Amino acid sequence: MSERNTTFVKTEGEQIPVVADCDVVVVGAGPAGHAAAVSAARNGASVTLLERYHHLGGMASGGMVLVLDDMVTEDNEVITTGLVSEFVERLEKQDGAVYPPTEDCQTNWEMWQKWSRWGCIDFHQSTMPQPIIHAVAFDPDAWKRVSLDMVREADINLRTHSWFSDVMREGGKITGVIAQTKLGRQAIRAKYVVDATGDLDVGVAAGAEYTTGQFIVTTVFRIANVDTDKAVAFEFAEPEAYKKLDRQARRVIGGAWGMWWLKTPLPGVVWCNCPHMPGYDGLSVEDMVKAEYEGRERMMNLLAFAKENIPGFENAVMLGAAEQMGVRQTRMLQGEYVVNKDDIKSKRHFADSVCRGRDYYTPYRALLPKGIDNLIVAGRHYSVESDAQKMSREIPPCQAQGEAAGIAVSLALKEDKALRDVDAKAIQIQMRAQGADPGDVPDAKALVENTVAAE
Ligand SMILES: Cc1cc2nc3c(=O)[nH]c(=O)nc-3n(C[C@H](O)[C@H](O)[C@H](O)COP(=O)(O)OP(=O)(O)OC[C@H]3O[C@@H](n4cnc5c(N)ncnc54)[C@H](O)[C@@H]3O)c2cc1C
Q1: Is the pLDDT of residue 9 over 90?
Q2: Residue 453 burial by CB count (10 A; 0-12/13-18/19+): exposed, middle or buried?
Q3: Which of 100, 163, 240, 381 is disulfide-compatible with 104, CB 3.0–4.6 A?
Q4: Orientation angle between helical segments 31-42 and 140-153, nearest 10 degrees
Q5: Tell me: the pLDDT tens digits for 321-342?
Q6: Could you tell me which residues are beta bridge partners of residue 324?
Q7: pTM score > 0.85 for this model?
Q8: For the segment 44-71, what is each residue's pLDDT rounded down to a tens digit?
Q9: How many angstroms does the Cα of residue 17 sit away from the middle of ligand 1?
Q10: Per-residue pLDDT tens for 179-216?
């Protein structure tokens, strides 16, 4: 765990230039923030999108997390549609997405052999072979390109290289945000703010209630020059020998799930969702430095082992680690409603559901902080308990949250009201109009009798 400082310095009062004046500022251009910005702009708001890095996409690009999961119900019905579907179509046009056609979504060994190394499996099922489902393997650079295209087309004022540092307030109201840049601090005035930082940076600065949690962190990396056909052929021709080697490989990396290497749309390039390193605080500089050293050492050890032992990896080379440390969980809002594990597991339906992921529903109240009128949250730091967040933080559901949050701010803007007073029904209607599934109609397997009514 990190050591928090106990000595402090004070800075003098400063004059901060206002670089943008807009309806909505979205902080963080990961999957959730990008969707929120595009959705708000397409609904008529003037939007500024603030991002600390040079690229858009957060964990989906800089974090090199390369399979879109949790897009379907357990019956393989696609429920993250709307902007998510548009994004996938755009990735495909750039040869940046691979997923099984509907006829391949079966449960048998033939399809397992064809699709499991793409990550298109229902890993929530423990019986083998796991069902092949609609999940999408994608290329991180294509993600960045598609994100930029959509931002440009929606006429969003993009400000990268801008690290959110504080909120501005007049009376009790947030009037915008301040970003740290190479040219010093800059102010962005806005009527509404979307916190899509993944870590609740804006919410914390604005005084929102939150909780903290932790999960493994991972330095995701990619290896090139792999003969994936040979590796897969060996896996199926000699399953026992393969399993033995695979167990050894996972010991070498020191923490990985079963499928530690997966194919990507780039021939011969695989991504490795490992090593999994527990005990690190994703907010702490000291911890992130230690994790960087540790992760890089472990990945080089694995590469050496794979080259020497695993058929198909003989000529493999390290393509590189992700630009961003793979942080899964830090701070989570404790807002108007806090989603818990039972809500997710029981598929609890909420009357004010505005988006979905897998078989769960996200109520509008879980995006709203208590006591702050013009701030909304979208992404992995939404209002949720720690163990429930681990089950509801995948990329497409975060995009869906962003799409709903973008609609919410545009409605609040039009009606000049607090976000909490926006009618969830109106968000649902607009989500449907955009081709998205807000979860207004409960699935046959949803827990409806205990529905928590919207206030
Ligand atoms: C190792 C790992 C493996 C995963 N595997 C999968 C998977 O296979 N499939 C899947 O669907 N999901 C997976 N996930 C989960 C998924 O990647 C994240 O939960 C998802 O990306 C969250 O989206 P987000 O937009 O909320 O946050 P993020 O993706 O974290 O984006 C937040 C954005 O905000 C920016 N930002 C943060 N703070 C500031 C600031 N102060 N100022 C300006 N900008 C800021 C960041 O740079 C980033 O662009 C994985 C996650 C990890 C870490």
Answers
A1: no
A2: exposed
A3: 100
A4: 20
A5: 999 999 999 999 999 999 999 9
A6: none
A7: yes
A8: 999 999 999 999 999 999 999 999 999 9
A9: 30
A10: 999 999 999 999 999 999 999 999 999 999 999 999 99
Find the residues whose C-beta lies inside 6 A of ligand 1.
27-33, 50-53, 58-60, 63, 65, 67-69, 163-164, 196-199, 201, 218, 220, 273, 326-328, 379-380, 393-395, 398
Helices (H), 310-382: 341-345
396 is written with which tokens?
Answer: 């497409």
Looking at residue 58, what DSSP letter applies? G
Listed as own residue / partner, the contacts of 289-298 with beta carbons closer than 8 Å and 24 or more positions apart are 291/217, 291/219, 291/325, 292/219, 292/325, 295/218, 295/219, 295/321, 295/325, 296/219, 296/321, 298/219, 298/252, 298/253, 298/254, 298/274
Q: From the CA of 351, how far away is ligand 1's center (Å)? A: 28
**What single string gives the DSSP state of each residue in 69-121?**
---B-TT--B---THHHHHHHHHHHTT-EE---GGG---SHHHHHHHGGGT-B
State the distance from the centre of ligand 1 to the C-alpha of 157, rounded, in angstroms. 21
Strand-pairing partners, residue 194, are 26, 376
- For residue 199, the CA-to-ligand 1 centroid distance in Å is 9
Atom of ligand 1 nearest to the CA of 57: 49
CA 415 / ligand 1 centre spacing (Å): 32
What is the pLDDT at residue 169?
93
How much is the average pLDDT of 14-28?
96
Buried b (16+ CB within 10 A) or exposed e, 343-365: bbeebbbbbbbbbbbbbbbbbbb
Model confidence over 219-236: pLDDT tens digits?
999 999 999 999 999 999
**Residue 1 clears pLDDT 60, i.e. is over it:** no
* φ, ψ (nearest 5 deg) of residue 347: 60, 45
Evaluate if residue 454 carries a pLDDT over 60.
no
Closest CA relative to residue 134, chosen from 100, 86, 84? 100
Counting from 1 in the atom list of ligand 1, the atom nearest the Cα of 53 is: 47
- Closest atom of ligand 1 to 28 CA is 34
CA of 59 to the centre of ligand 1 (A): 4
